[in-house]
Design brief:
The structure holds two protein chains of two kinds. In chain A, about 35% of the residues lie in helices and about 30% in strands. Chain A is built from ten helices and 14 strands. In chain A, helix 2 packs across helix 3 and helix 3 packs across helix 4. Chain A is elongated, with a radius of gyration of 23 Å. Chain B is about 85% helix and about 0% strand. Classes of the chains: A alpha/beta, B mainly alpha.
Chain lengths: ~300, ~280
């Protein structure tokens, strides 16, 4: 396993529990999306995995080594959410400094910098002072700094928060490229659509506890949400669907149901017709990550 | 550590505060130079007692220049050191830095060495220039070895303050650290002042207050040692040591040993606390 945590716990001031006994295993090549509401403990978990926050108890290992050792971080790239760069440097100077910290030999630095800038679409801007960069360009540069030494493991904390839609697409493309290279990616993002599109595995964290963890496909199985606009609804039917945990919402003449399989849609419609309900409109759509997220977090 | 040192030096030379500091130091030296010019024009010359008097006045004015330099060197060291770690945590650059394969000890050590180098050289150039100006205008008889020893000792003065500021920077916010370090600096200065007056009037309680304040922060003791070494070999130690700017109560060599241990302990503690800090 590339990342392995064992009952990782962080309690601030002896009472505020930011992370609670988190056990997590990430294999090489996975793109892991960590999801949770604000204050759930996502950033604390990422910081513990990077050795920035010391756990109160438990252990985190990367490639089998403790995370607080500098040599463990040799194979890690990190883009913080609230990043800030040394804006009195040029992009090239900043990346050269980072290259030095990774121990990239001087003769190889130029090539590594050129490649990283090309990956994030900043070729030709390397001689400019960072203070002249837009927020989005700075985020791209920070990303270039994170991938400079071709890390085996890349932590991205809200990597597209300052980017426009084109920039977001570019970052998604970059993640695909890195994934093809075999880079393991740990993505922390509020943009569920982005996570849904890029992540192979998901983890849901709530009040410092990992409430669900697994392959993305497990969470996004063939479940569907059916919205029916009708009148003359039979209360016994609603009661049964509620007991079967299919009923999501009843609003005026509209009901929303969740079904495990698309093939259940005509069955539901037949039942409604059979109970003499007048149907005006039926809509079926697959259940997205947003619904999964809300179910897990609000339950 | 080398990477951090290089980056810190680059930062120092890129920041406007250093440029302004250098310009204001030049202004300070020009004002000092003008003062020397007018005093020397009216006082220098003559034979016998008058020559002796102008020589002693020259040493006194040189000592005054050194003493005033402690404020400039001290202010530079405090301003440089107070945000060394906390400033980077507060503005967000530290997160990227600590995620790199660097030990936190290297970050503290690299920054401290870079700032020490700059502030020590700055201090040496400043007091060196003052000594040369005093020599030129007052035709002072100087022992170059003694002056060099004094300058080398004076270079430790900002390093003591930097070490304190670095430790504070790992424990407090930049603002709180700035106030704390400046207060400690003031305690050292006042304590040193009292020690000198105590030595002149023979009051042991005042001398002891100075010794305790020097144990708390040995910057003033370093200054006294530096200025005493400078004047002590001139054959004019009495007049150089006379007054609150001189070294009437001279710290022993053990105070130098103490100051070196003090700096090392401060930096080791800074490394320890930064290592333990949650970012």
């Amino acid at each position: 396993m590339l990342i392995e945590t064992n009952n990782l716990t962080k309690v601030y001031n002896g009472k505020i529990s930011a992370c609670n006994e988190i056990c997590l295993s990430l294999a090489e090549g996975q793109v892991f999306g960590l999801l949770g509401p604000n204050g759930a403990g996502k950033s604390t978990l990422v910081k513990m995995l990077l050795g920035m926050v010391h756990p109160t108890s438990g252990q985190a290992l990367i490639k089998g080594k403790p995370v607080n050792l500098p040599q463990t971080r040799k194979s890690i790239g990190y883009l913080p959410e609230l990043f800030r760069l040394y804006d009195w440097l040029t992009a090239e100077e900043l990346l050269r400094f980072y290259a030095g910290t990774y121990g990239i030999p001087a003769r190889e630095q130029k090539a590594a910098i050129t490649e990283a800038l090309e990956l994030v679409g900043l070729t030709g801007r390397e001689k400019e002072k960072i203070k002249g960069y837009s927020k989005g360009m700075q985020q791209r540069l920070a990303l270039a700094g994170a991938v400079l030494d071709k890390p085996d493991l890349l932590f991205l904390d809200e990597p597209t928060s300052a980017l426009d839609p084109i920039g977001r697409r570019d970052v998604r493309d970059l993640l695909y490229t890195l994934r093809k290279r075999g880079t393991t990616i740990f993505l922390n993002s509020h943009l569920l659509s982005e996570v849904e599109m890029t992540c192979t595995h998901l983890g849901f964290i709530k009040k410092g506890r990992m409430v669900a963890c697994g392959e993305t496909s497990e969470f996004l199985q063939d479940s569907h949400i059916i919205t029916v606009e009708a009148d003359g609804m039979d209360p016994s039917l609603l009661e049964r669907w509620n007991q079967e945990k299919k009923l999501v919402e009843v609003k005026c003449n509209t009901i929303s149901l969740t079904v495990e399989n698309r093939s259940e849609v005509p069955v539901i419609v037949n039942e409604l017709v059979h109970h003499g309900v007048n149907i005006y409109h039926v809509e079926s759509k697959s259940r997205g990550l947003e619904e999964v997220f809300l179910d897990l977090i609000e339950s | 550590m080398q990477n951090i040192m290089k980056l810190t030096l680059k930062e120092i030379f890129n920041k406007r505060i250093l440029h302004i500091g250098i310009i204001l130091t030049i202004v300070y030296l020009l004002v000092y130079c003008l003062g020397l010019h007018y005093i020397a024009r009216d006082q220098v010359g003559g034979q016998g007692a008058r020559l002796w008097f102008t020589q002693q006045a020259g040493y006194q004015i040189m000592t005054l220049g050194w003493y005033m330099s402690t404020f400039l060197a001290g202010a530079l060291a405090i301003m440089a050191g107070i945000g060394s770690i906390s400033g980077e945590i507060e503005n967000g650059t530290m997160l990227s830095l600590v995620s790199k394969p660097l030990s936190r000890r290297a970050i503290v050590g690299g920054k401290f060495l870079a700032y020490s180098m700059v502030t020590a050289i700055y201090s040496a150039v400043m007091v060196g220039t003052i000594s040369l100006l005093a020599r030129y205008y007052f035709k002072l008889v100087m022992n170059p070895g003694a002056i060099l020893t004094g300058i080398l000792l004076f270079m430790l003065f900002p390093v003591v303050l930097l070490a304190v500021a670095h430790l504070g920077s790992t424990l407090m916010s930049t603002l709180t650290n700035g106030i704390t370090t400046f207060m400690l600096f003031t305690v050292g200065i006042i304590g040193g002042f009292m020690e000198q007056i105590g030595a002149l009037i023979g009051n042991h309680a005042m001398i002891n207050i100075g010794v305790v304040s020097s144990l708390l922060i040995p910057c003033d003791a370093i200054y006294r040692m530096a200025v005493t070494r400078t004047g002590g070999m001139l054959g004019s130690s009495f007049i150089v040591n006379f007054g609150p700017f001189g070294g009437a109560s001279t710290p022993s060599i053990w105070m130098l040993v103490y100051a070196l241990i003090y700096i090392a302990v401060m930096i080791l503690l800074a490394m320890y606390f930064f290592e333990k800090k949650d970012l």
